[in-house]
Amino acid sequence: MFTASLLNPRGRIGGTVTAEPEGFVFLSTDSKSTTFLYGECSVEFGGTGNRFIYLTNGSEQTLVVEDPAVLKESNVQYSRLAEKIAAITSKGNRRTVGRWILSIVALVIVGFAVVLALKSARSAIPLKIPRSVDFSLGDKLLPLVMNGAKPLEDSLSSAVLSEIKGKLVSANKLDSFPFKLTLVNNDLPNAFALPSGDIVIHSGLVTEAASVDELAGVIAHEMGHITARHHLRGAIDRIGLLLVVRVLVGLDAPAEFLKTTKDLSLLQYSREFENESDSLAVTYMKNAGFSPDQFAGFFTRLHKDQKIALPEFFSTHPDPAERSNRVKKLGGKPIPSCKTFSVSYTTYRNHLKSILSKEKER
After folding, report:
1. Tell me, what DSSP letter sits at residue 151?
2. pLDDT at residue 146, rounded to an integer
3. With 0-12 CB in 10 A as exposed, 13-18 as middle and 19+ as buried, what is 354?
């Protein structure tokens, strides 16, 4: 017995319905019965979740059953109405499958939209953060990444690095960035930058470079990481904006921050960031009168000579040959090596080698 209603032009009558052998028998609250023969019925589903069953038999009356379980009664299952129910159910299933397919397609589209939005946000968020945040972050991290290394106090080195920096800054209007170049005694031909504007240069990089253009190319590349805010963008990618802010406001120690970012991973960049810095370096060099061609060949030469393995910081760089070709294309028409530098690079390099040799003898 199921709760049901009988609808007709005079109104609605409440009652119950049972599935008898010949058809549905509706018994109203005033004990009047009406039979809907299975063979003469048409059936439709409606209501929330299709839980209402609407049965009509050609008359002006409609029987509404409030429980779809009535259709599972054995008398209904073996009646002529069963075929009609099966046809409707099959159509409903196909419609459901169609809805699922549309839902999946919609989810995929939304997923792509979210990915694109996140990618856009990754670049947009740092642009909304004041530059002072970068400088503060770099100041906190510099003592940790230096790890006790002391700068090489040499007047000629200071003059050479200052002249390279001055040419790059002046020609590219980068005066708003507090770049500071520091030379340390380390045989590994490497350099790294911090968001504060600090660029630490290993002595091994100076002695391996064949010209002032090659050294200027590496310095310009590191400047690109700073001006494009790769450190902050990378930190947000890795650990989220909230943790970066916690360090900056003093809730987390810088050492804990480095631990969270897996030590010096803050100084490792994605291929996207490396390519962007190479592009900026080429622009900075050309404007300052340095040759991008020589910068393009620097890492390729180091790799071919096999004198040293490329340092860990360069693990995300593109293949040296690929990178060389790309930088040459970015540079366009080749320009000659810098002729306006005040000191012969060979003279300076030999001078530094002599200092380093004396340091080793101590």
Report:
1. B
2. 78
3. exposed
Cβ atoms of residues 296 and 303 within 8 Å: no
> Coil, strand or helix: which one is 83?
helix
DSSP H helical ranges for 28-146: 74-77, 81-128, 131-146
List residues bridging with 199 in a β-sheet: 181, 193
Pick the CATH number of 2-88 from 2.40.110.10, 3.40.710.10, 1.20.1250.20, 2.30.29.30: 2.30.29.30
Selection from 77, 78, 53, 85 nearest residue 67 by Cα: 53
- How far, in Å, CA of 32 to CA of 160, rounded? 109
Task: Provide CB contacts within 8 A for 11, sequence distance 6+.
Answer: none
pLDDT score, position 309:
42
3-state secondary structure of 286: helix
- The pLDDT of residue 83 is 72
Q: What is the pLDDT of residue 8?
A: 80
What is residue 235's three-state secondary structure? helix
Q: Residue 319 and residue 265: Cα distance in Å, rounded? A: 20
Residue with tokens 């379980």: 69
Question: What pLDDT is attached to residue 239?
Answer: 59
Q: Kindly report the pTM of this predicted structure.
A: 0.61
DSSP annotation of 15 reads E
Based on its alpha-carbon atoms, the radius of gyration of the chain, rounded to whole angstroms, reads 38
Q: Which residues of the chain form CATH 2.30.29.30?
A: 2-88
* pLDDT one-digit tens code per residue, 196-237: 899 999 999 999 999 999 999 999 999 999 999 888 777 766
Question: For residue 12, which phi and psi values (nearest 5 degrees)?
Answer: -120, 135
Total residue count of the chain as it appears in this document? 362
Q: Please identify which residue in the block is written with the tokens 């963008």.
A: 233
Which of the residues in the chain have pLDDT under 70?
A: 47-50, 87-128, 236-268, 303-324, 362
